[in-house]
Design goal:
Layout: H1 3-21, H2 25-36, H3 41-62, H4 68-77
Helix pairs in contact: 1-2, 1-3, 2-3, 3-4
Length: 87
Amino acid sequence: METNDKLREQIFEIIKNQLTNSDPPETKITFDRLRKQGFDDFQTRQMIGQCLAVELFDVMKFGKPYDNERYINNLIALPKEPFDKIK
């Protein structure tokens, strides 16, 4: 298994936990909204995963604290791709 596959599995596991626990609730709201817009399960998880990856990158690469507000703003903006900063 390649590193990217392992990383995707871990991100999808985090998303699964967020959906199960409704924490943050915006993950489930976004998931349901994107599914209603016609995206399949994998596409939806992948888009949410991109939002999560932005946060994980800053934490792991730069030692910055997790930015839950930016994560939620990026979720709300989907299917628009997430950015490091929401303006």
